[in-house]
Write a structure and sequence with these properties.
Shape: elongated
Radius of gyration: 24 Å
Number of helices: 7
Length: about 525
């Protein structure tokens, strides 16, 4: 049986002071026991970490977050619960990914985890409730999960998932629930055409009934109307106008009786559906989701800070930056911004289930034949072909001369090199610059230490990135892997523009909610 896990909130990281420096994100992973996550400010860490670079020729070491308290994930596609905020005051539960062909909703929920600091109250986020459907870009490979909350057979493949999200909804600390969706067309109270009529769902805030007597925040219609007004204050076009949609579920709407929000309503919990139109790009959908979501947070009394501009361009930048995965307690990490379609000979631990950490909650490493496929939402980024190795404790860092200056680079870091680097010997270990061909006259071993290495010494096909600038330097004790760093050469080919949205274009269901 799979289990959901909770996780500390990752720090939000950005690129360094030069556009060609790709910082590795705060690699996030999930914890088996519930815990209130700390924002960057609450943790006493800056929300932005830059590469150390200046006008001087000192080498720049790309930094990453402290992940010592972040245990790793397995490759099973289970959902995750993130608890953000102070742990006191109002608590809002946000759910994304219940239907996998709705990337605007799960992308917005992901940004809430990675780019928001909760300053008052708490926000609980499940950004990937139906992770298998997200990977497959399907409304639901085992049927529509949002129709399984009234009754469900025990032998349904999603029975355990539905039961666990019900338990979270019913937690006495949860005051309000927001379920994020992408809907077809544009909901309009009156018929304005085939894609703008009462049967459509896009650009609507959905309630099952106008009020919920006895509940805190029980005036559902008033809250929804305010959220509609505030969303409409930031329309990209007048044609994108939001409206309130009351399904009046209790009056006989058999389909809506089966939904997550109506389950919450029946148990005295205020709940709302938020729909963005499937006519938009992923970042535009997420932009509108966040405008509506932020209104509900304010109305519930939840304080927050966001570290990007709430515009489609700002949303896209936040979605596309710092996409990375790591293994072996962050000693082996892979930046994915410009990653090759396939990475070979990656030293992964022999004889054990794969563990990984990820910078985004909608990143996943999935078993595939004799290797792994890395997905960001439903976008396949790369395939990893492992070289199975035993692991061992190592020195934890490498000492190098980089362009004439000495620098110590911890495992799980990247150093920028203008021209040449030389690795100092590591007692009892050998160093392998993957893909480098260097002459070492008189050398007594095959460790690539004490020899200057330049970019021209590397075979391009061994680079991590398609631009051919980033290479692995691995450390071994005998045949056992101890850790690695990355070197990134300046002045090489600039990375081409790559679409890093967590979604790919494709067919989406015309159904709603």
């Amino acid at each position: 049986m799979t289990t959901y896990r909770t996780a500390p909130r990752p720090a939000a990281f950005r690129h360094g002071v030069r556009p060609w420096l790709y910082c590795l994100a705060a690699l996030l992973c999930l914890h088996a026991a519930p815990a209130t996550a700390a924002s960057p400010a609450q943790a006493g860490r800056p929300a932005i970490t830059q590469a150390v670079a200046s006008a001087s020729p000192a080498p720049a070491v790309v930094t990453t977050a402290d992940l010592t308290k972040a245990p790793p994930r397995h490759t099973e596609l289970d959902f995750n619960l993130y608890k953000l905020g102070t742990g006191s005051g109002p608590t809002v539960l946000v759910v994304g990914g219940i239907q996998g062909d709705e990337p605007g909703g799960f992308s917005a929920a992901s940004l809430l985890v990675t780019h928001y600091a909760i300053t008052n109250g708490s926000v609980w986020v499940v950004p990937n409730l139906n992770f298998p459907s997200m990977i497959k870009r399907s409304r639901g490979p085992n049927g529509d999960m949002n129709r399984k909350f009234a009754a469900l057979r025990r032998d349904d493949p999603e029975y355990d998932t539905v039961c666990r999200i019900k338990d979270i909804i019913l937690d006495k600390r949860v005051d309000l629930i927001l379920n994020l969706h992408d809907g077809s067309g544009f909901y309009r109270p009156k018929n304005e055409g085939p894609m703008r009529n009462p049967m459509r769902w896009g650009q609507s805030v959905i309630i099952d009934q106008a009020t919920l007597p006895g509940a805190r925040h029980g005036d559902l219609a008033a809250m929804a109307q305010k959220a509609v007004r505030e969303a409409n204050g930031g329309l990209l076009s007048p044609m994108h106008e939001y409206h309130l949609k009351n399904t009046r579920t209790a009056e006989g709407d058999r389909e809506m009786e089966k939904t997550l929000t109506y389950f919450a309503i029946r148990h005295g919990k205020p709940a709302f559906g938020i729909e963005a139109s499937k006519d938009f790009s992923t970042e535009q959908r997420s932009y509108y989701h966040l405008r509506v979501l932020e209104s509900f947070l304010r109305q519930a009394g939840v304080g927050f800070r966001r570290d990007f501009a709430l515009t489609p361009r700002g949303v896209l930048a936040a979605l596309e930056n710092d996409v990375a995965v790591a293994f072996f307690d962050q000693r082996l990490y892979l930046p994915l911004d410009d990653v090759r379609a396939s990475l070979g000979y990656i030293p992964l631990k022999k004889g054990e289930k794969l563990l990984f950490t990820a910078s985004k909650p909608i990143l996943a490493v999935v078993d595939e034949d004799d290797g792994y496929r890395v997905f960001y939402g439903n976008r396949a980024l790369t395939r990893i072909t492992p070289e199975w190795r035993e692991y061992t404790d190592g020195p934890g860092s490498l000492s190098l001369d980089v362009d004439g200056r000495k620098v110590v680079v911890p495992f799980g870091r990247m150093v920028t090199v203008r021209d040449t680097f030389t690795v100092h010997p590591v007692d009892g270990h050998r160093v392998n610059a993957i893909g480098a061909q260097v002459a070492r006259p008189g050398a007594r071993d095959d460790s690539e230490c004490d020899v200057p290495i330049r970019k021209k010494d590397f075979q391009n096909r061994f680079s991590i990135d398609k631009s051919g600038n980033i290479y692995r330097v691995e450390v071994y004790r005998g045949e056992k892997f101890a850790g690695m760093i990355l070197v990134r050469f300046e002045g090489g080919a600039k990375p081409g523009k790559r679409d890093m949205r967590p979604s790919v274009a494709g067919k989406e269901s015309l159904l709603g909610y």
